[in-house]
Structures are given as structure tokens and as C-alpha cells.
Write a structure and sequence with these properties.
By secondary structure, this protein is α/β, with parallel strands linked by helices. It is built from 11 helices and 13 strands. It has a single domain (7-262), classed as Spore Coat Polysaccharide Biosynthesis Protein SpsA, Chain A, CATH 3.90.550.10. Bound molecules: 1-O-phosphono-alpha-D-glucopyranose.
Length: 294
């Protein structure tokens, strides 16, 4: 019988050092792409993929995230009296669409450590992990594409994307062999090994892990057993490597466009492209960009 994935975990306790000073007093996950905070794109992807139980792993200085997904009576009242039903709906929709819980990661000891913090609330069922830095435009949503693989194979699966050689040392890289799926052999892979942020010469392929995972609770002891790895952090990739001893692991090269919003240039690219696609902004913004005569 197929077990459904009901919960999505959002690690959001990182220090956001790449965006200092903007992230000194504001969580990186709240930086807006046009007019929506980064983390909301990920949460909406989970909802569109059929998951509305959201667990956010937060840390010190992250209360803005909790406030964002909460009801704001003052703001709603103000919008009501000013007769702005459009904005009222946008603000309400955020708190209405999910059931959200928070758990604290007291120290930023790595992605694996953040996932471990979700153990109690996730319990004994499969769950998704979304890294909000990776914003993915896709239809169906990237997480939905992974869940389809999960429903077929009932085994953990992560998102993959081919990256250029110079980017390899920034990612988790997999060694994998293609598997027939939906009539092709170029989307689904059976993973045989993984390495976090390898040097180019040590990388087993160009296939990088992108921030979407469907995992089973067996990942928790696997992370614990793996211990600290690259950068002295407790890495999810090392836990997955350990998990391979007892479970098959799949990677899916998703359809869609991924933006690395955790990087300044990637963030700017995402901002421009999202703004150009907006009905209300696209026209004048395109005209402005053209006027720059670059
Ligand atoms: C994390 C993961 C890495 C993955 C990447 C995707 O790294 O550890 O395996 O490739 O996300 O964005 P980070 O970007 O947090 O350094």
C-alpha cells in the first residue's frame, strides 16, 4: 500500500552570511523576490504539491518567519477599513493555506542537523524537505514530480540538476545510473554514491543535488551515525550516503527552471525574471530594462 507524504520540513536556521548586512536582523528566508518572501515560494510549492503540514526549523532572530505565516489582526483590520479586498485576500491566504509548526535549531550545525531537529514532529512517516533558497518554476511543481516518483517506488528521492564544472564544488554530487521511468531513461536515476561539495577532480558526475527531497524516517539514525562532514557540519548528504546501506535511493532530474536565490547574482536573476513575468509589472519593467541600452 502506498504511504502518502503529508509533511514538509523547511530548514531555515542558517545565518544568511552571503547576504550580510541585509540579513543581520532579518532572516534570509524573508528577503522578497518581487513582493513575496523567499520561503513563501517554497511553502506554496508544497501546497500545490498536496502538502499542507509545514514544519519550519528556525533559529535565533527568525521570528519574522513566524509572524509572516500567522494571522495579523491589525493589518487585516486596516485593510478592511481601507476597503482593499485584494490585499486582504493576499495577506489572509498565507495564514489560511497551511498548518505550520516550528522547531528551533539552537546552533547552525548543518543541514543534516536541521533535519534531525524535525524528528519528533515528523514521527514515523515519510516527509519532504524543501530548501527555500532553491526557487523552482515548474509545472507540475518540482516537489510534486518527486512525490510521483515516491508513489511509484516508495523509496527516498531527491531532485537533481546537471551543473557546469565550475559550480560542482558548491553542491552535493551523486554517482548514479539511469533507470527507465515514464518511457525515458534520462530523468530518473538510481543513486549509488553521494559526496558533499567535492573538488572538481573528485566529483563522480555533474549531477548536483537541488533542494527538494522526499525522505523516510530511516534518515534520522543515518544522519546521527554519519557525524560531521564537509565544513565540519552535519551534512544531509552524508546521512543519505549512510542510508544507501539499507535503502535504495533515487534522484530525479526535474522539469523546470531553478533559481539559486541563496546567491546574490542568482537572487538578482530570479528577481528580474519573476518581475518580467508579472502581469502588473512585466510591461513597464521590460520597457525600463530596454531603455538601459546595455
Ligand atoms: C545544500 C546541500 C547540497 C545541495 C544544495 C542545493 O548545500 O548540502 O548537497 O547540493 O543545498 O542547493 P548549501 O547550498 O546549503 O551549501
Amino acid at each position: 500500500m502506498s504511504v502518502k507524504v503529508r509533511k514538509a520540513v523547511f530548514p531555515a536556521a542558517g545565518l544568511g552570511t552571503r547576504f550580510l548586512p541585509a540579513t543581520k536582523a532579518q532572516p534570509k528566508e524573508m528577503l522578497p523576490l518581487v513582493d513575496k518572501p523567499l520561503i513563501q515560494y517554497g511553502v506554496e510549492e508544497a501546497v500545490r504539491s498536496g502538502i499542507r503540514n509545514i514544519l519550519i526549523v528556525t533559529g535565533r532572530g527568525k521570528t519574522a518567519i513566524e509572524d509572516h505565516f500567522d494571522v495579523s489582526f491589525e493589518l487585516e483590520h486596516l485593510l478592511q477599513t481601507r476597503n482593499r479586498p485584494d490585499l486582504l485576500a493576499a495577506v489572509r491566504q498565507i495564514s489560511d493555506m497551511i498548518d505550520v509548526a516550528y522547531v528551533r535549531q539552537r546552533e547552525a550545525l548543518g543541514l543534516g542537523h536541521a533535519v534531525l531537529r524535525a524528528r519528533e514532529i515528523v514521527g514515523n512517516e515519510p516527509f519532504a524537505v524543501i530548501l527555500a533558497d532553491d526557487v523552482i518554476e515548474a509545472d507540475p511543481p518540482a516537489l510534486r514530480q518527486l512525490l510521483d516518483v515516491w508513489e511509484r517506488f516508495q523509496a527516498p528521492v531527491l531532485a537533481l540538476m546537471e551543473v557546469p564544472p565550475e559550480s560542482i564544488p558548491s553542491y552535493g554530487i551523486v554517482a548514479a545510473e539511469p533507470v527507465e521511468y515514464n518511457g525515458t531513461r534520462d530523468r530518473l536515476f538510481r543513486i549509488h554514491d553521494l559526496v558533499e561539495k567535492p573538488r572538481l577532480e573528485d566529483a563522480p558526475s555533474k549531477l548536483a543535488i537541488i533542494g527538494r527531497y522526499v525522505l523516510t524516517p530511516e534518515i534520522f539514525p543515518a544522519i546521527e551515525e554519519a557525524g560531521p562532514g564537509a565544513l565540519g557540519e552535519i551534512q544531509l548528504t552524508d546521512g543519505l550516503r549512510r542510508l544507501l546501506r539499507s535503502s535504495p535511493l533515487y534522484g530525479y532530474r526535474f522539469h523546470g527552471v531553478r533559481y539559486d536565490a541563496g546567491d546574490k547574482l542568482g537572487f538578482l536573476i530570479a528577481t528580474v525574471e519573476f518581475a518580467l513575468r508579472r502581469e502588473d509589472l512585466g510591461g513597464p519593467f521590460r520597457a525600463y530594462l530596454k531603455s538601459l541600452k546595455l
